[in-house]
């Protein structure tokens, strides 16, 4: 072991320890950043779904309120009504025997972006409404 003194050997072990600590610190930082970004993405997706669900319930309630107020007649309900471009509201009517009340069920679907898969049901709202023609009884 000519030329290597105990002092040089100790310095080599110390710099190797610093390198190991540096690699460990970088690995911990990358893991923490990955966890933080994953949590943030999950929170943003959850907020997006909640906002879509709230818009869907508002659209369904608005359509049923128009029907209840007499702004549209049961006979005017046909195809889906587009809302905000990505939501569509359909209203199905089921008459009750011996009564002027009808069961109205509004279903809100979202159009998938790929256009290949089936539309997804976002919200359903059901209400009993008095059957009448458009404009009849609009001012209660």
Short recap of the structure:
This protein is α+β, with helices and mostly antiparallel strands.
Task: List key phrases describing it.
24% strand; 1 helix; Pantoate--beta-alanine Ligase, Chain: A,domain 2; rod-shaped; 4-stranded antiparallel beta sheet; 140 residues; alpha+beta; 46% helix
Description of the molecule:
With 140 residues, this protein is α+β, with helices and mostly antiparallel strands. The protein has a single domain (6-130), classed as GSPII I/J protein-like (Pantoate--beta-alanine Ligase, Chain: A,domain 2, 2-Layer Sandwich), CATH 3.30.1300. It contains one helix and four strands, in the order αββββ. It has one helix at residues 6-69, and strands at 81-83, 87-95, 101-110, 120-130. Strands 1-2-3-4 form a four-stranded antiparallel beta sheet, with helices on one face. Strand 1 (81-83) and strand 2 (87-95) form a beta hairpin. The radius of gyration is 32 Å and the shape is rod-shaped. The model has no long low-confidence stretch (mean pLDDT 82).
Secondary structure blueprint with pairings:
Elements (H helix, E strand, L loop, with lengths): L5 H64 L11 E3 L3 E9 L5 E10 L9 E11 L10
Antiparallel strand pairs: 1-2, 2-3, 3-4
Radius of gyration: 32 Å
Can you say what the CATH homologous superfamily is? GSPII I/J protein-like
Helix content: 40-55%
The CATH class is identified as Alpha Beta
């Amino acid at each position: 072991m000519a030329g290597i003194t105990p002092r040089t050997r100790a310095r080599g072990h110390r710099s190797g320890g610093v390198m190991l600590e540096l690699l460990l610190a970088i690995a911990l930082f990358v893991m923490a950043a990955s966890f933080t970004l994953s949590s943030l993405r999950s929170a943003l997706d959850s907020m997006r779904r909640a906002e879509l669900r709230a818009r869907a319930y508002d659209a369904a309630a608005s359509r049923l309120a128009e029907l209840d107020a007499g702004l549209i007649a049961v006979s005017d309900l046909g195809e889906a009504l587009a809302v905000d471009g990505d939501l569509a509201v359909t209203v199905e009517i089921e008459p009750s025997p011996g009564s002027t009340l009808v069961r109205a069920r509004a279903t809100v679907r979202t159009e998938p972006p790929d256009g290949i898969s089936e539309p997804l049901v976002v919200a359903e709202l059901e209400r009993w409404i008095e059957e009448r023609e458009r404009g009849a009884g609009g001012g209660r």
